[in-house]
Amino acid sequence: MLRRFFCKIILIAVVLCGLFALSGVLFAQGRSEDALARAIEVQERHTNELMAKPGVIGTAIGEGQGAQPVILVLLEAGGVPGIPDHLEGVLVRPLVTGKIYALAKPDSKPGGKPGSGTLSPTDKWPRPVPIGVSTGNEGECSAGTISCRVKDASGNVFALSNNHVYALEGGAAIGSVVLQPGLYDTACAYDTANVIGTLYDFVEIKFDGTANTVDAAIASTTTANLGNATPSNGYGVPKTQWVDATLNQPVQKYGRTTGLTKGTVVGVNWTGNIGYSSGTALFTGQSLVYGSKGAFIKPGDSGSLLVTDSGKNPVGLLFAGDMSGKYAIANPIDLVLGALNVSIDGQ
């Protein structure tokens, strides 16, 4: 009986230790979430004054030592005076990214990026075309990337890309023709055989200082013209279920210029200025990605779908980056889908 009593005591002790350990984890998680929320509040209170400093292009929340959130101050170049070390007790860290631009006009045609067989993302693909390859509107000799196939509540399917790829920053008419590949990749020659759909809807980009949250447009198409997987050297079919961007999240994308690239989310709640042909647009609530090896995004990759590295869950719609290609900016994919009333047509 004494042995049974001691066994019960030991069992109770084990259970209590487990409960204490679990409560400690939950407490730590709660503290981490509280710290992130507070850092965002402080960031948003001070972003305007920080961006008023010459050379500051934006702010975001990153991660410092001990996984503590820090306010990132994004700089055009180094040596900007007046950047504080702390704001309301939150550590501030300057980060030189250079200016950020919308990336729809390629510098050149890439080489050595084969897809299925010998085809490159810039080539004309057999129908249905894959996602992640060259596309554009008939009204401009440029090229971006097909993000993915999306659908509405009635089952109609669309090609998703950026406003500046499909709607030409608002200059293209609803019903204008969308091509694969984009005109840049056919030496600006229009061919009716390259038509995959027509511009159906887009979210306006505001250039008056009003905050934007998405650079997105959809083209009406069919499953006969557009598939839902990348070329064979990409990540395949994205999941239907999207997830939020989180700090240190491993991500990947497949795009017209650089093909499959991998990176890490290094900033959330990014607020900053993006350069367009039509002017400068302010964006808020974006994700900042840093390439793991070489460039993550280059001109022509605009419109690429950002997905998690492990589960292929959509995270964002890529639309901008710095001139080196190491840093990229993505719209939260839930805001994109909500604005256009569509969902990912994946697996």
Describe the structure.
With 347 residues, the chain is α+β, with helices and mostly antiparallel strands. It has helices at 2-51, 163-166, 333-340; strands at residues 56-63, 69-75, 86-87, 90-96, 101-102, 134-137, 144-145, 148-151, 157-161, 177-179, 195-202, 217-220, 250-255, 259-276, 279-291, 305-308, 314-321, 327-332, 343-344. The strands form two sheets. It has an eight-stranded antiparallel β-sheet. Strands 13-14-15-18-17-16 form a six-stranded antiparallel beta barrel. The chain starts with a helix and ends with a strand. Residues 10-30 and 111-116 have low confidence and may be disordered.
End-to-end separation: 58 Å
The fraction of residues assigned to DSSP E strands is 25-35%
Q: Sketch the major β-sheet.
A: 8 strands, antiparallel
**Uncertain regions: pLDDT < 50 for 5+ in a row?**
10-30, 111-116
In sequence order, what are the helices and strands, one letter per element?
HEEEEEEEEEHEEEEEEEEEHE
- The geometry reads as globular
Mean pLDDT: 91
Query: Count the strands?
Result: 19
Helix content: 10-25%
Strand order of the largest sheet: 7-6-10-11-12-9-8-19
Question: Structural class, from helix and strand content?
Answer: alpha+beta
Q: How many helical elements?
A: 3
Whole-angstrom Rg: 23 Å
Helices and strands in order:
Layout: H1 2-51, E1 56-63, E2 69-75, E3 86-87, E4 90-96, E5 101-102, E6 134-137, E7 144-145, E8 148-151, E9 157-161, H2 163-166, E10 177-179, E11 195-202, E12 217-220, E13 250-255, E14 259-276, E15 279-291, E16 305-308, E17 314-321, E18 327-332, H3 333-340, E19 343-344
Parallel strand pairs: 2-4
Antiparallel strand pairs: 1-2, 1-14, 3-4, 5-17, 6-7, 6-10, 8-9, 8-19, 9-12, 10-11, 11-12, 13-14, 13-16, 14-15, 15-18, 16-17, 17-18
